[in-house]
Design goal:
About 40% of the residues lie in helices and about 15% in strands. The protein is an alpha/beta fold and about 425 residues long. Helix 9 links the parallel strand 5 and strand 6. The chain is globular and about 60 Å long. The structure holds pyridoxal-5'-phosphate.
Length: about 425
Amino acid sequence: MTDIKRNHLDVDFVRSCFPTFKEPLAAKTAFFENAGGSYVAGAVLDQLMHFYKFNKVQPYGSAEILNAAGEQMDNGRQTMADLLGIRSADLTLGASTTQNFNTLAYACEGLVNSKSEVVVTDQDHEANIGAWERLCRRTGATLKVWHINTETAELDLSDFESLLSPKTAIVCMTHSSNIVGTVNPIDKVVELCRANNTRVAVDGVSYAPHMWPDIPSLKPDAYCFSTYKTYGTHMGVMYTSEEFRSQLDPQCHYFNRGYGHKLLDGTGPDHASIAALGGLGEYFSDVHQHHFGSTDQSLFEKAQQVSSLMHAHETGLCNQLLEGLSGLPVQILGRNHTEGREANVALTSEKHTSAALSRQLAENDIAAGNGNFYATRLLEKMGIKDIEDGVLRVSFSHYNTTAEVERVVGTLKANH
Ligand SMILES: Cc1ncc(COP(=O)(O)O)c(C=O)c1O
């Protein structure tokens, strides 16, 4: 074991953990569409295949095969809880984050009335706005918007402080936007909300793939993200604290109310996808072992350490992109440097539509999409006229390489 390995992500090793890279189409593609959904780690695919091949039965029961299915699902659920450092009872595994926020908003109906206020931001993906807007419509509560600063596309904490009032029941915000990339000060928002008796629901979908969330330190009331963007199966993960759940309207079958993890499950579990989450723990453990050797650390500690390596690698790549773009007639939404930013860069060009940029990249086998990515309110606020054309988004994952970034920069330069 060398120090080099401890300090730098071994990209060849992590790529070898993703079977997709062995396929011809993926092998020739520089993939920067990760914010839409990442490739899936081989260990997750193995678990998924195992479930479908051997355990695809109604789980739990007296027969051995029924129990095998249940055990694989229990392992998937417990692995995700362990990765996050939370209790399994505090973990809802839903179909998607959109579904989870919708269910949560319904569960919050008893917490608000016509005298309450609910705060959303216009930096968020629609999943964490619309559900709360509809809650306000149903209950008569007032929806307040924490607007972005249109100079920076960022959310200024001072604006939030002036929005927060004794009437504020719930604040719903993103940890980092899927367009802007700036990491928002969730810790400070949680602190302000605690002192105000206000609930906080955080959208970590865009944050988690770049930096594994530290929910025990942040202590939000609810935290959501999507595992199909964190190298796993297509699921929505939702943490809720036990105390918060005790105040909510259950959204499950009445006879399941005694189970914390079922209380907000409005869809019914996708057995195979849950079972396959065990593979995510294997992936983080394998990467940890490769870089740090065998240790008896918890899965949560391993995930945090591995994620720091991934983050440092992505930040280097993001810096390479941002430096490469400097001088080109393009506008980056958000910071043009990597401090306090995730490796997820959206831009518009003075010379080309965003669709044309995406096509130019595609001609060089680079996948990076254009559009509004369901953050329409943000783009409208930033004065982007054609919301369908939207922005070009170059979103990184830890398995991207410097050579791939060179291809992106080279293509954009050649077309400007
Ligand atoms: C920031 C953000 N929030 C929420 C969502 C919705 O997640 P899901 O597709 O799991 O509903 C997305 C999806 O792209 C997203 O990028």
